[in-house]
Design brief:
Elements: H1 3-16, H2 23-50, E1 57-64, H3 69-80, E2 86-92, E3 95-103, H4 104-126, H5 136-166, H6 169-189, H7 206-215
Antiparallel strand pairs: 1-3, 2-3
Helix pairs in contact: 1-2, 2-5, 2-6, 3-4, 3-5, 5-7
Length: 242
Amino acid sequence: MSEAMLSKVRKLLAQAEDAACTPAESAAFTAKATELIARYGVDRALLAARDPTTDPVGDRVVDVVAPYARDKAGLLAAVADPLRCRCVRRPAGQGFTLHLFGFASDLERVDLLFTSLLVQAAHGLAGTMVPPGEHPAAFRRSWLAGFARVVSERLRIAEAGAAADRGTPSVALVLADRSDRVARRVTEVYPRLRSAPIRRLAGSGFGAGAMAGHRANLGDPDAVGGPTRRPHLGGPDADPTR
């Protein structure tokens, strides 16, 4: 992503985090930052339609470690899918290796957002009390599921809005073709890929996590005041398994 675009996103998120902002103003600034990231994705797609060398299909590998490795992998998939990327999850010790496929600009956006959202999720979990009598790991897993669900929905809405703003049927065709090309690349590398079974979560944290997902800043990790490295989720009582 260009420095000019990052500068705009950082400024918007800094305004959104200003204590003097009203909730409505903060939400407006955050929405604008999300819109800019989505518009960037559409602009790069249209440019690549004219010159494919500017944005080739590629892949990268992301290691997701315990604790809560399965939940962090779910968050990565929740970010990747609306941005027209695909994830393949492979077991790796007590964690997972995520093989991520997509166009270069979309992989860049996924990496930026995922790193930021992991930081925000860690902060959100640290500030959320586990209800008395509930297992901390079960609560946190369901919290993370709610967080990922809402973040994915917000990104999907932003992407659709950015495409609609261009106002031409060709945009939809370009984006659909990009999704198809990524899917074909996944099939080439993993011809016998199977879908993961649906998880059953027992914790009661989904609603609290969903509320945190609505508040999450969908921008650069530097703009939310957290480290650029990907944090571990959970505290000393975190479940050490996946």
